[in-house]
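Discussion board: Methods & Data

I've been asked by a reviewer to show the raw model output for two of the constructs in my manuscript, not just the figures. I'm not sure how much to include, so I'm pasting the format here to get opinions. Each protein appears as its amino acid sequence followed by a line of discrete structure tokens. Is this the kind of thing reviewers expect to see in a supplement, or should I convert it first? Here is construct A:
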Amino acid sequence: MQIDVTHDVFRLAEVFTISRGSRTEAKVLTVRITDGDVTGWGECVPYARYDETLESVSEQIAGLPSVLNRAALYDLLPAGAARNAVDCALWDLEAKKTGKRVWELAGLAKPGPEITAYTLSLDSPEKMRAQAAKHAFRPLLKIKLGTPDDMPRLEAVRAGAPNARIIIDANEGWSAEVYADLAPHLVRLGVALVEQPLPASEDEALIGIDRPVPVCADESCHDRASLAHLKGKYDVVNIKLDKTGGLTEALALRDAARAEGYDVMVGCMVGSSLAMAPATLVAQGALVTDLDGPLLLAEDRLEPLLFDDSGVHPPLAALWG
């Protein structure tokens, strides 16, 4: 096998801002694994929150042996971006070699479209209201919050999109006291879910707190090993392939989380359609699907995912899987 890694950049349609900072482009790693005359590929987005860089993840992949399979990969790389891109490339490689779709290889039902959230960038209340009004036709909006001035922003978004379902991502920006103060207002404004309100290192404070709006673990949940630490704190887990380390673990985490009584959200980093493609399989039947990365881009892969009124559709074989 030959493993090749490239650094690719996709321009964003607009500046994208969360509580941790702003960006104008998505920087990703594309992994291609060639066996004979067949090549499979996958994409990952290294994330500084987890001490990942393009360089560090590239080095992890460069250290892999030339003979590789998905089972062995789990002993070679930890959960994270590097394993994600390689795992997904191996799935794609097997699909191309066997002439079967990945969902068939994984023993899954044929996938269909899923309604996806559309993320509004963090901005002033006035600008967020304008963003919300522009996208009010979308059934599900996600708001990036996590600052001391969140209520005016939330009120503005609700005014701009009175009929949309709203979810919030606080990006670890609140305290338990802030969440408790905001909770009645979240109910009043029809918020359907709050993602990671507290820092992962401080989420013990969620135990015993009334949760009138479901609380979702993002930074607190990476793979199946995380589940033991979530009891009594969260109602939903956010599965991202760049956290789980690929499709293989993402599917296992989904099943394990549901077996323990959690609802499932499937999310993403800001990447191209190639990064979202495997996640569409995990998102089947999820409480919340948040795979809007390609909608935020000014440019995408040659065979991008289809987004329409039915949601985000599974990939064509020409893209992945």
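Construct B, same format:
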Amino acid sequence: MRSGMARRGSSTRSGSTMRQLQVEHQSWPLAKAFSISRGSRTTAEVVVAAITDGDYVGRAECMPYARYDETVEGVIADIESLSGAIADGLDRAALQDTLPAGAARNALDCALWDLEAKQFGTPVWQLAGLKAPGALVTAYTLSLDTPENMAAAARENADRPLMKLKLTGEGDVARVSAVRDAAPGVRLIVDANEGWSPEMVEPFSAELVPFGVEMIEQPLPAAADALLADCAHPVPICADESCHTRADLDALTGRYDMINIKLDKTGGLTEALALRDAARARGMTVMVGCMIATSLAMAPAVLVAQGAEVVDLDGPLLLAEDQPNGLVYEGSTLNPPHPLLWG
């Protein structure tokens, strides 16, 4: 059940049309505590933006992330700062230059997409010139823990086709080994969340090969990832914290084999689609990921994830409760969103 909600609203009339912006903080308990190299959490603290034209309402969700110096209060303030501009007709194109990439822009960008879809009676995928979305197979994430506890979690989910293991540095090879023993038929990818030191990259990458690990996500801190250009790594390396928008791609070339696209980093669906296409044009493999959030946050990412080599949109599976009309998961198979949810 949601808790700790706060609503704020603002509206302005422009001619005969009124667009009103409302912002809401929602807290969603997790099914169990979730840990990565930077710490643990028991709730997903999200911000929902809603834009109405008087007839239709467009909604979207973002997850402020402290790693990027974001807070719930700050993101709400950034969104509310554009209430007048939204009321006066600010569109998605102008939004890209009005707010920087990040959670606040994501909520507004995706809310505008949703509103436009409702106004025209046309799904977002058609508005964006995309093919109709199909079902996706998502990774299922195992929280950072002891080898024994991660093995137990893997055993409980051994029927899932793909698992992502949260790692941290020392003891990681033992964690992966334990999971592999517990779930021998599962495909594995790992995510260090910037938790490795430079001297770990080459040996750890080599040691993970016998366990069938297919990808290592963000092993080094973003500020130190230039070292990856000189590191031998038989397992492909994926940029997460190092990749936010197309502006990052030049620096990533030669360091990473693939990128993880998250809408809370790109600042919405508009830039996420452009980043995906630009990365593919450079020959980079694409992963589409998420923060821990509800189905409302996942829905736009489903469009970006069509055809992605790795999909990691399991946020709602980690919650104790989800949004009404949430995404339907059949095991690890994720179905496209219903229009009552988004898009």
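Answer (T.O., handling editor elsewhere):
This is acceptable in a supplement if you add a one-line summary per construct. For B, something like: The chain has a mean pLDDT of 94.
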